[in-house]
Amino acid sequence: MPRAIISPSVLASDFGQLTAECNRMIKGGAEWLHMDVMDGHFVPNITMGAPILACVSKGVPGIFMDCHMMVADPEKWVNDIADAGGALYCFHLEATADPLSVIRAIRARNMKVGVAISPDTPSTAITDEVANAADMLLVMTVYPGRGGQKFLDRCVPKVAELRARFPDKDIEVDGGVGPKTIDVCAHAGSNVIVAGTAIFNAPNPEEVIASLKTSVNTAQANAAK
Ligand SMILES: O=C(CO)[C@@H](O)[C@H](O)COP(=O)(O)O
Questions:
Q1: Which residue ranges in the chain fall short of pLDDT 70?
Q2: Is 68 assigned to a binding site?
Q3: Distance of CA 112 to the CA centre of its chain
Q4: Which of 73, 168, 174, 183 does the annotation list as catalytic?
Q5: Where on the tree of life does the source sit, at the highest rank (predicted)?
Q6: What's the pTM value of the predicted model, to 2 decimals?
Q7: Which of these, 31, 77, 174, 222, has the minimum number of CB atoms within 10 Å of its CB?
Q8: What CATH code would you report for 5-224?
């Protein structure tokens, strides 16, 4: 089973705070930082793009930027995100008719590949060919577009279905994940955990990171028995 990875989705109101929080998360035990790129087309909101990520990359030594591309034309941004220091480029299956071409473009820039599905997309939409060409599969547990939404339990079976098909892939969950919802995700087989509100609204974010990781490790140990 792949290792537990915590990828905080950083909430910040200015750039200085963004880099400071990223540095704090890494010191606090986070392996990755989840960077939500929204384009105002695939989702209604606009967040940040490659220029901001390039600054973060310079201001946060050792950062692994897990770039969640909530964008309408995923192939278009591959070079910019690679130049900005993106380590993993995760695009939405719903946003392209040719996922293998997007994957080839990402590989050509030496980034890891993630493929995301929104709540209404079945796990079977991820074909074996696409999954085997990817490093990570992301099951959204809220509708993409903003943080702070309620976790959708009905998405959890998709995690279990993908884990059964792909025992060695990283499987990420994102949206409404925190201490109250981590156990079902971990039990279903997710090993990469994104959390925004649950970490940043907590009095001690480092404790939440540690407890999310413990939940994944415990679920993995139980599954191995
Ligand atoms: O991409 C998204 C939502 O579109 C997520 O990354 C959220 O931003 C995570 O925040 P919480 O749901 O954990 O508050």
A1: none
A2: yes
A3: 12
A4: 174
A5: Eukaryota
A6: 0.98
A7: 222
A8: 3.20.20.70
